[in-house]
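With this grant's support, we have settled on a layout for protein records. A representative record follows, to show the layout.
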Amino acid sequence: MRHVLIAALLAGLAACSSPEAPATEPASAPSAETFVRALYGEGETIWSARTQALLTESDRLTPQGYMGFFEADPICDCQDGTPVLQSVTATSTGPDRADVAVVQGFAESGNAVHRKTYNLVREGGEWRIDDQHYETVASFPQEPMVQRLEAWIVEAKKPGAWDGN
């Protein structure tokens, strides 16, 4: 089912064209901002090959019945609630790279506002999330997602890592 959702998202993104797209992007390619906006609308994420390999490894290392690396939806940083994008600002960092800063709240009152930046890469002509950095999430600082994921994998591989969890 996930592959069907990804295919649908990719087809939708391929059909999009942003008037703000930099001159270096082909006219039919979606902008980095359009890609991130689609993540919130579709609820399905698309990771770079590097990040997907790490996520696959974390899934492999997680015993059945245990919580893996993600404790919440990695896009909205939530388990419940309806995410609402308050702002999205894309900055090109190279011909096939962009950083997209996001301010996200929730439709339900009393929820925190999240600020983060997606580091995107274009692979196979499509934008992919390579990493994400949180400016604010909850009340504690966090390292970039890939750094935390790599550390999680190291810990999960240690003998006895899942004993007593």
